[in-house]
Design goal:
single chain, mainly beta, 7-stranded mixed beta sheet, 4-stranded antiparallel beta sheet, 0% helix, globular
Amino acid sequence: QVQLAESGGGSVQAGGSLRLSCAASGYSYSTYCMGWFRQVPGKEREGVAAVDSDGRTVYAQSVKGRFTISRDNTKNTLYLQMNSLKPEDTAMYYCAAAPLRNIATMTAPWYKYWGQGTQVTVSS
């Protein structure tokens, strides 16, 4: 049974930091591309960052230089370090897994497994 469980969301003031985690189980984690997505009610889901099986990363332009995605294949865990948070970063954040080796993509249709999400709220 595949599980992706996000944690670490919360409320923070603008300029603050949060670290999201995603614990994965039930599939071959180390061979999958892993990504973070976010969604605000009434808007389309947006790719935030992705990391491939070899650690190569891609980021949305809106978070580049502020967010860092990483993975620990020994713990089957994905992370998103979010610094210098802005009110426009407020969203539900989801981790997801795509059965792609050596490819980092934020194209949502490639992703096979999704977590339930963790809420991030940034106040001004």
